Amino acid sequence: MNPEPSAYHQRVSQEKRAAILRAATRLFLDSGYDRTSLAKIAEAAGVSKATLFKQFPTKAALFDAIVATSWQAGDGTEDTPAPGDLRAGLALIGRRYVALLTRPGMTDLFRIVIAELPRFPELAESQFRRGKMPYFDSVRRYLEAEREAGTIRLEDPELAATQFLGMISNYVFWPRLLLAHWAPDGAAVESVVDEAVLMMVARYAA
């Protein structure tokens, strides 16, 4: 039986994995998914091909990992808020969503998917299945929990989750795909979140 890896070796492995994901994202964006080989990614990441292949045996597996990592909260706050205070819960989710959408690399990920969609529709499927939908489902489950707690009245939690996240992303994220210098200040972003919360409370609060 092999011994468990030490904390040092775990840290080194995590650092190499992060370097691989960063290098792959940049190469996919600069050169295209099809023209980027795993060998080029290994070279750009400063790791051996054996190290890369051990973690990511295929390019599709590597892209899946990029998607999953990009959509993780990554700050230890990904737990769904407890139901009971709709305004506070939505405000917390809204601020987390802003932090997620404005993380380095998120815009690049969407640009890769959009650029490669005609030839590699599986990239968009991965983005939807492994990234967006798990996050969306967490918001839907929160709204269902609030409904069970009696704080809201709604028939379609999926529609309500779409409305709330859409009010935020339509200002914070989507313009970034077209406008290179789109960077609203913190006060403007906070106002968008606050207004989205107020809209949801006005529409659905019991």
From TrEMBL:
Pfam family, one: TetR_N
Stored InterPro entries: Homeodomain-like_sf, HTH-type_TetR-like_transc_reg, HTH_TetR, Tet_transcr_reg_TetR-rel_C_sf, TetR_C_Proteobacteria
Domain of life, source organism: Bacteria
DNA-binding residues (ranges): 37-56
Record flagged with keyword DNA-binding: yes
Keywords: DNA-binding
Segments forming domain HTH tetR-type: 14-74
KW DNA-binding (keyword) present: yes
PANTHER family: HTH-TYPE TRANSCRIPTIONAL DUAL REGULATOR CECR (PTHR30055:SF146), HTH-TYPE TRANSCRIPTIONAL REGULATOR RUTR (PTHR30055)
Official protein name in the record: TetR/AcrR family transcriptional regulator
Native species: Streptomyces durocortorensis
